[in-house]
Amino acid sequence: MTEERLTHVSAAFSRRFSGEPAFIARAPGRVNLIGEHTDYNDGFVMPCALSFDVLMAVRSRPDETVVLHSANFPGDASFPLDDIEKSGIKWAQYIKGVAWAMQEAGYPLRGADVALEGDVPVGSGLSSSAALEVAACLSLAHNSGHVIPGPEMAQICKRAENEFIGVPSGIMDQFISAVGQDGHALFLDCRDLSFEHIPFDPDAAGLAMVVADTSKHRGLTEGVYAKRVEECEEAVRLLKQFIPGMKNLRDVTFDEFQIHQPHLPDVIRCRARHVVSENARVLGAREALKAGVYEGLGALMNASHDSLVADYECAGPHLEAMVTASRSIPGVLGSRMTGAGFGGCTVTLLRKESLAQFMAEVPGLYQEAISVLPKESDLVPHLYAVSASGGARVL
Ligand code: GLA
After folding, report:
1. 173 counts as catalytic
2. Higher pLDDT, 375 or 348
3. Rounded to two decimals, what is the model's pTM?
4. How far apart are the first and last CA of the chain?
5. Probe residue for ligand 1, chosen from 42, 169, 336 as the CB with the greatest number of ligand atoms within 8 Å
6. Which residue of 54, 145, 343, 372 could cross-link 118, Cys pair, CB 3.0 to 4.6 Å?
7. What pLDDT, on a 0 to 100 scale, did the predictor assign at position 1?
């Protein structure tokens, strides 16, 4: 977040509402290093927050209305706090959903004028919607005199996403946006929400991290994500007959899985194998990161991707092309898809001295590889060198 963007959102506020905002709140997008499709299985994840974020310039109003003005998207929106309806402009739904979930959680809200702007690429799997939700939660809380701890904000925003927006997502994106720390990755146990900030400073270790957007977009609402959630539920239902006491895939060790997997239908077996093995990889990655063994982290990132391709079938040709292109550059320690998949971004850890070659060559390699695809064969990728940034705060 730059001074320029702060000035921009303040100016947007003044143009729309006149006068100055009382405060500006920010919440970031995220990249997940490892632990994909584990959060809704009570498992482990290890994301970090990015410097891409949503900014909200806010001032309270005397009435019970929230008025929204976006500097990015056309159309303003407003809604009464005592009668929140699921209709109207798409981006405003996330804010309405959060206001609804906050009141459900027992936080009375005051009316607000809000101008917002974001630079999280939308539809790229970097959690632009979680950034919007968490920024809204923090803004409405601060405007109403509430101090809500980050983990609770994450739960409120998840409820908005699940019950108001209707996407059965896990808690990872909202959690990292709410509690992320500069220069740290977050290890999160999605069962009890215990977490640990682990120092993660690739630059200091002579490394770089690149997020590569395939420009192939796919919304979470499109159904495949929900199908994967159901497939995991089915795996739990079947495995429970053989593993007494298990509640979720999180409770299954890889050895137990190996013993009981013949009882599962092929597709369900693959989905479960990904989740069970991915949880073990996240635990390994946490140890590797703590020990500063980045080669170990890179190898686990590669294994995670390969499992998402082979067992979870959620990568698709664009993400696969980007990972193949990335791994062909010398000095790459690990490269994988990040987020829900089916399009979106990859994350790559590489030696700093390879960064220039990576940025110069990967786009062309990717474009060459996708040129043979039957659809979306001419997408222009966007590459960003990124680092772990801080979570939501009032500036
Ligand atoms: C999306 C969801 C998260 C998580 C990831 C996959 O980002 O919002 O909750 O399930 O997909 O790991």
Report:
1. yes
2. 348
3. 0.97
4. 11
5. 169
6. 54
7. 63
